[in-house]
Amino acid sequence: MRFALIGQPNCGKSTVFNQVAGYKSETGNFSGTSLAYIESKVRVLSEIVDLVDLPGTYSLSGSNPAEREVLHYLTYHSVDVIINVLDSSQLTAGLSLTLELMTLGKPIIVALNMLDEAARLGMRIDGEQLQDILGVNVLPMIASRGRGIRAVFTTAMMAAREDSPPKRKKYEDKIENAIEKIAGELIGEKTQIESEYLAIKLLEGNALLLERLYEEIAELSPVVESAQKAILESEGQPTVWVLNAEHHKMAAQISNDVVTQGKRRVSRRDSLDNILLDPIWGYISLGVILWVFFQVVYGVGSLIEGPLLELFDNLALELASKIGVGTFFAEAVTGIIQGIAGGVAIVLPYLLPFLLGLGFLEDVGYLPRLAFLVDALMNRLGLHGKAIVPFILGYGCNVPAVMSTRLLESKRDRFLAATLATLVPCAARLSIVFGLVAFYLGPQLALGIYLFNLLVIALTGRLLSSLLPEGTPGLIVEIPVYRLPTWRTVMHKAWFRIREFIVDAWPLLILGSLILAVFDRFDLTSIVNSFVRPVTWVLGLPSAVGVPLIFGIFRKELSLIMLRQALGVYDFSEALTAVQMITFTVFAVFYIPCLATLAALRRELGKRNMFIIALLTVIIALIAALLARAGAMLIY
After folding, report:
1. CA distance 187 to 180
2. Burial of 222 by CB count in 10 Å (0-12 exposed, 13-18 middle, 19+ buried)?
3. What is the per-residue pLDDT across 21-30, written as a single tens digit (0 to 9) for each?
4. Distance from first CA to last CA of the chain, Å, rounded?
5. Which residue among 50, 346, 352, 587 is the one 20 to 30 A from 166 at the CA level?
6. Number of neighbouring beta carbons within 10 Å of residue 620
7. Pick from 149, 153, 155: nearest CA to 115
8. At a CB cut-off of 8 Å and minimum separation 6, what does 601 contact?
9. Can you tell me the distance from the alpha carbon of 391 to that of 397, in angstroms, rounded to the nearest whole number?
10. pLDDT tens-digit profile of 21-78?
């Protein structure tokens, strides 16, 4: 048995999924967070069911990748019941999708989420009346607090067992006649949804279905084209617009019938946008937020890093003395301990508070406002507006940032957005910025590197936009309401991201440290370093940093962890000057993305574009590092 969670972006369906399946789906208080479906097994009424979280979508017309993903899944996968999650504060938009889902011929449960937000806006929704109008079960829910979720899934199980699909709302006669005629041609077609719904999608001109079904049913093409032409002549616009207008009209009428609008409760957060989105105060607020953010991350990390490093260094010396200083086994054990220490003492103390802070800013609703605010500045510099969303996601991880570029229709836009996303300092690169620059030179300089990163990205966007001239739309982003997230949600989100480091990166850190110890033992590091020496010589860095830079391509954290081992010091200031620390950090922030990001680039853009972007990042990293070195030499 399979349940499908479907709803508009930012309606809380992924929060529902995480509440019942454990934190497996990326969430955020802005649209575009979920880009592919995620499945998990959950227990409902002593029965194991497959639960799938589909990407957020406003409709099933297939006009963008998220809509096509949902439509394709529903067409070719068996779904026993649909749990349609609605944002109660935006009921009309949600009901428009509900009316489309009712044409699928599958049982549906409507979950009215965010009722607390609707109440704050003065909205009172008559759930019983809505249930009578739609002919499906309607249940109240506040997913962020876990309220109503059990009842939703219990009702969904009963609906799946009864297998009683709702009756769809009827359109005007001309459209109904066209649907009936096309549906007659589809009898016997093997899909998971009703032939009437397929007929509706074909009338809309859905390319995904047209291409497939025209190949299987040759006589279908003239029937569909004739019906589309008739509706165009009658209504004066394409069928897809006519049907969307019908859905919106029905949804607006239903919403008007079931919603009683009372007095809106005005709170302090309502006036926040007057400050945070102001052309002047908005940027001042951004600077203050970033400064506080960096101070907190640095304060927590520096408080933990020193004592933990000392603890592991003492442990390594004690074990080496017992095994025998200078022996191969002692050096191997020391390398393993340094790899473990790098994750525990250098990466996690900064990574955890950073991800907690980032998760809080996402869930509270600040990031889409940041996108709107920065977009105005970026457009003046020639940067593509829609690139802001992948840009924001990149601060957590470049992989979902690259994946989010599939929301852009133009190949040129996807290439440009993906290039810029790979330049964003992800959480892994954060460990280098904080573990090296912030710890030894201060958090203000670390913040300066991040601001310098923004400048480089803006200038790169300007240059690429001029080299790839093409008209492109600006940024269209939904500004959600402010929501105070629960710490449980924020902690789960941070763990979801840290788990990737623990499972994927940490073993590589330990293995890399062990390999470096073996290389040092047999004098192989000099050979490897010689390949990178032209770059390190130009940047004024010690030749020993070559191996860490190479291993950094596997995981960015490796660059910093192995640097300490490669230089043979416990204190970086003993081997690197302030200028060299800044130069190394800036180069590491920009140069070749990690293997996971390269794989995402290849999957989204192809092998050729992957190599082009990798080469661009090396050139940008060299130029940026040289500029940073010149600037640092003026200070130190």
Report:
1. 11
2. exposed
3. 766 555 444 4
4. 66
5. 50
6. 21
7. 149
8. 402, 418, 422, 593, 609, 610, 613, 614
9. 10
10. 766 555 444 444 555 678 888 888 888 888 888 888 888 776 666 777 787 788 778 8
Out of 375-384, 548-557, 563-572, pick the least confident: 375-384
Of 234, 227, 191, 267, which Cα lies nearest the Cα of 481?
267
Cβ within 8 Å of residue 360, ≥6 positions away: 485, 490
Strands (DSSP E) found in 471-630: none
- Tell me how far apart the alpha carbons of residues 615 and 354 are, in angstroms, rounded to a whole number: 29
**Residue 539 token pair:** 């940047």
Q: How far apart are CA 377 and CA 286, in angstroms?
A: 13
Local structure of residue 145 (DSSP, 8 states): G
Question: Cα–Cα distance between 283 and 288 in angstroms, integer?
Answer: 9
Q: Which residues of 257-278 are buried (b: 16+ CB within 10 A; e: fewer)?
A: ebbeeeeeeeeeeeeeeeebbe
Report yes or no: 95 and 110 within 8 Å, Cβ to Cβ.
Answer: no
Beta bridge partners of 2: 50
Is residue 138 classed as helix, strand or coil in its secondary structure? strand
* Measured distance CA(271)–CA(246) in Å, rounded: 36
* CA–CA distances in Å: residue 528 to residues 218, 519, 536: 62, 9, 12
Q: What does pTM read for this prediction?
A: 0.66
Torsions phi, psi for 50 (to 5 deg): -85, 125
The Cα–Cα gap between 202 and 382 comes to 39
